[in-house]
From TrEMBL:
It comes from Megaselia scalaris (Humpbacked fly). It comes from the Eukaryota. Residues 176-538 form the Acyltransferase domain. Pfam families: Acyl_transf_3, NRF. The chain crosses the membrane at residues 117-139, 184-204, 224-244, 307-326, 333-352, 379-396, 408-429, 449-469, 481-503, 523-543. This is Uncharacterized protein. PANTHER family: O-ACYLTRANSFERASE (PTHR11161), O-ACYLTRANSFERASE LIKE PROTEIN (PTHR11161:SF0).
């Protein structure tokens, strides 16, 4: 894709005399992107097969570029021109080849609407509360006066102490390694989405990207989608861990309505800050996100990453049934979880076979039919969440008990767990190679059972680390430095994609891909996401 010169186009602004009306005409530039579907190009040049051969030839002399969805070029048109009419003119000029004209921009600033003024007022009130609460905190400290806790809710001083506080001596019932696991998973998500931008943004050296995707290093990026399964597993684990603690305290009673009402209200209050009502999908489908059903919409996604919240909330709403079942019947209830998990696995497997999906689902497949049918649906994702709940139940059975594991079995279990981890990450290596023909059955087996394997590996890692059999791995995962990122992980997940949109949206030329450049952009994304999350946590109370 040739982006042209964006700034030069939108800054065109000059007057000219019209020979027809003798009136002065003001010409203002408007930048648009014209896209031609690749199939249209192939049909146009079929008599001359050079281009077709270029995209479909054998990999014998080296990797060939993968066919892009469309060829694109930046065009500069007068502001008064309608993009649909321009598309029609270009289509006629190219002898019927369909041209799409999208993403038009001008140098104009959008007018503020009523909802913008409402948002300004709300944020103004929040700013005033921040100032008053922070001043109250500072003044009472200076004057050594007693403090009222409710007046500290918006204090930047109080909240920063709370955010950056590190517990160097956690209690025996704290699962310390979870901080490291959650933090590394969040880093992995940002890393994977960094690669995504190279796949959707114009790249100067496309063949280099294709060749790089055949390396083992690329799999670290592409299999990053498994990190979300870590979050589902931890969600189930913590629901069980905290839920059984509450059930023991209340002797088998749960105030389900209040617990779920509080959770929904908490999520709603955070989602409100993230809506972009200037975005057409948000204007039309915000209610789906607020009802937590947006993971089943096929288009017009408002906030893309909130599909995870929808799945997590739907599972949270049914969790009391599972908790009460395990509390009442214990191990006898486990077959119910096994059968439910088998149904989900079978559903994913059948979907792959029916639709003949081949290859490994990766970050490349975002916004595809395959992603919608096998990745974001709750019925396809709850297996590892159920494994988290089951493991949480098992973990509570060993609470305050001494666990003794012989060295041989400990090493054997660690070897198995690490083998599973590396198999999930690097197992698809062969399917990435030129000429490899993947079957739907192979792809279905990997996608359905890799999540199960990941849950098994996480179970052992957490169990061993919690009971003192983690060695250096536990020392690393339980290091206090992870506590801060762990606290910020929810906010980082919700904001990182927006941060990346801002970063990459400011690029006005095609990107050049290299490992070094990719890592540089990852650390840029991670750093800005971390800073944005700290700011939002301190100002908007987005701490989970």
């Amino acid at each position: 894709m040739d982006l042209g010169n964006f700034q030069q186009c939108i800054h065109i602004d000059f007057s000219t005399d019209s020979s027809v009306t003798t009136k002065e005409t003001n010409i203002v530039g408007k930048y648009c992107q014209a896209r031609i579907p690749i199939q249209e190009i192939i049909n146009l040049v079929k008599p001359h097969n050079a281009l077709v051969d270029y995209y479909t030839r054998s990999h014998v002399d080296g990797p060939a570029p993968e066919p892009p969805i469309a060829l694109g070029i930046g065009i500069c048109i007068p502001k008064v021109c309608n993009r649909k009419k321009i598309a029609g003119i270009l289509t006629n000029a190219l002898k019927g080849v369909k041209v799409e004209v999208n993403n038009c921009s001008t140098n104009d600033r959008p007018d503020l609407e009523a909802i913008d003024y409402v948002a300004i007022c709300i944020f103004g009130i929040i700013g005033l509360l921040l100032a008053l609460s922070t001043f109250y905190d500072w003044y009472t400290d200076k004057m050594e006066l007693p403090k009222k806790q409710e007046y500290l809710a918006f204090s930047l001083i109080y909240n920063s102490h709370k955010l950056f506080a590190i517990n160097l001596k956690p209690g025996p019932n704290s699962i310390n390694c979870l901080h490291g696991i959650r933090s590394l998973s969040m880093i992995w998500v940002v890393l994977g989405h960094t690669l995504l931008w190279y796949l959707i943004f114009p790249i100067m050296n496309l063949r280099t990207v294709v060749a790089w995707k055949q390396t083992a290093m690329a799999l670290v990026y592409e299999t990053g989608i498994i990190a979300v399964d870590t979050f589902f597993f931890l969600s189930g684990l913590l629901i069980a861990w905290m839920g059984f603690k509450e059930l023991e305290r209340t002797k088998g009673k749960l105030n389900v309505i209040m617990i779920q009402f509080y959770e929904v209200l908490w999520i709603w209050s955070k989602l409100a800050y993230l809506f972009d009502y200037t975005n057409y999908p948000c204007e039309k489908t915000w209610w789906r996100t607020m009802l937590f059903i947006n993971n089943y919409e096929n288009d017009l996604t408002c906030i893309g990453q909130t599909w995870y919240l929808a799945v997590d909330m739907q599972l949270f709403l049914v969790s009391p049934i599972i908790l009460l079942g395990l509390y009442k019947w214990g191990k006898k209830f486990m077959p119910v979880l096994v059968v439910a998990s088998a149904l989900s696995i079978g559903c994913v497997y059948a979907t792959y076979i029916k639709n003949d999906y081949t290859g490994v689902l990766s970050i490349d497949d975002i916004a595809t039919d395959r992603m919608a049918k096998t990745y974001v649906g709750t019925h396809t994702r709850y297996t590892v969440w159920l494994m988290g709940i089951a493991f949480g139940y098992i973990l509570t059975q060993f609470k305050n008990k001494e666990v003794k594991i012989p060295m041989f079995y400990n090493l054997l279990a660690w070897s198995a767990a690490l083998t599973i981890v590396f198999s999930v990450i690097f197992g698809p290596y062969n399917s990435q190679q030129p000429g490899y023909e993947s079957s739907a059955a192979e792809a279905a087996t990997y996608d359905a059972f890799s999540r199960v394997g990941w849950g098994v590996a996480l179970s052992w890692i957490i169990f061993a680390c919690h009971h003192g059999y983690g060695g250096v791995i536990n020392d690393f995962l339980s290091h206090p430095v992870w506590q801060i990122i762990s606290k910020l992980s929810f906010c980082m997940y919700m904001t990182h994609f927006t941060v990346q949109v801002i970063i990459y949206g400011n690029f006005q030329t095609s990107l050049y891909f290299s490992n070094f450049d990719a890592m540089g952009k990852f650390w840029t994304s991670f750093g800005f996401t971390l800073m944005a999350s700290i700011f939002l946590v301190l100002t908007l109370k987005l701490l989970r």
